[in-house]
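Summary of Year 1 activities. Much of the first year was spent building the evaluation harness for sequence design. The harness presents a backbone, in tokenized form, and records the residue chosen at every position. We chose the following record to illustrate the format because it has been used consistently in internal testing since the harness was completed.
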């Protein structure tokens, strides 16, 4: 499966997930490896990859692919496909 979504690629690589993992299955409550240490490392990866900074309030809400994607969109990053779900 070809994947042109840079956020999805980053999350698949970061959590060592199969390439066919659906974005809606990338949620903190579904991934045992997404603990507090992984969260700190993930934020560092996201900030480096997308050249953004998250404040503590934003970080507290980044618990899924959709929430991270929405936060990046609010910071001006443009994705070509529409979000998976609306919140």
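For this record, the design step produced the sequence shown next.
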């Amino acid at each position: 499966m070809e994947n042109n979504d840079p956020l999805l690629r980053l999350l698949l690589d970061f959590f060592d997930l199969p390439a066919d993992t659906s974005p809606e299955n990338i949620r903190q409550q579904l991934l045992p490896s997404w603990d507090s240490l992984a969260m700190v490392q993930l934020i560092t990866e996201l900030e480096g990859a997308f050249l953004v900074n998250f404040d503590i309030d934003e970080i507290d809400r980044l618990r899924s692919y959709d929430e991270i994607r929405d936060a990046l969109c609010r910071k001006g990053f443009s994705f070509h496909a529409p979000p998976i779900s609306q919140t």
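The radius of gyration is 12 Å. Quantitative recovery figures across the full test set are reported in Table 2.
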